[in-house]
Design goal:
TIM Barrel, eight-stranded parallel beta barrel, 8 strands, 4-hydroxy-tetrahydrodipicolinate synthase activity, lyase
Amino acid sequence: MSRISADSKGVYIIAVTPFKDDGAIDTASVDRMVDFYFDKGTDGLTILGIMGEAPKLTQQESIAITKQVLARSAGRPVIVGVSAPGLAAIGELTKAVMDLGAAGVMVAPPGSLRTDDQIIGYYRNVVATIGEDVPFVLQDFPLVTGVQISPRTIGAIIEALPSMVMLKHEDWPGLDKISELRAAEAAGRRRISILCGNGGVFLPEEMARGADGAMTGFAFPEMMVNVCKLAGAGNLDRAQDIFDAYLPLARFEQQPGLGLAVRKYVLEKRGVISSQAQRRPGAALGTKAVAEVDRLLLRLEKRLAELA
């Protein structure tokens, strides 16, 4: 199993966790989902993230899902979210998944961090816990974590901790943050990979600012794959045309508190998972919302036919 590095690029899709209607893990859908993501051209997977309902899983379930996904991925890179309130849990899960062959781990800051020194100190403690040989992703998602991490603080972490090889960039607004980080690299600082989240709704602009790809879970991964490839080849106009076709659905999926329900509904409609069920607590789509998503899917199909 290859490990992530500062040169990792492309789409590392944030995978959902499929459940049956009774809340049990749907192992058949896990295999089908892994196949679907790679068939659509993704470069890797990221499992047990925030939108993967990781806090609703036991440690044993997290390890079991990781083992299954790694086996199905057949050597292709899988990043595992290991964020937890305590360092002991992070260390235990990291050891388990890296022993199984994970490509790296992702760690979000706990909401208790307030100052730059606290944030830098926290990630020093993370590395001391998981080991300097484990490549990790810093998840910068202040809209959910409540932790604001400035480019200067990210830079201090990059310089202090060589095993921080990737930033999952989900600040909003955050385009200037990408530019500032890349400018520092142009001035001589160590390079890191930057993959972007937020449902992909800023992906063309993020790629133009110097991002390496996407790490988010939009239900049409082929959109992100195509946009990243086209943007990487310098064909920004065509990338924008493809992106614009999907934007109404991506926008609808981006609703706070409802986004995962939309994503799972679409994945169920696409035959990827057997049920849109979430473990409690979780939002559900009402009748009107379902009709709105169905309308957007029909319009997307029509627009893609026009673009083809």
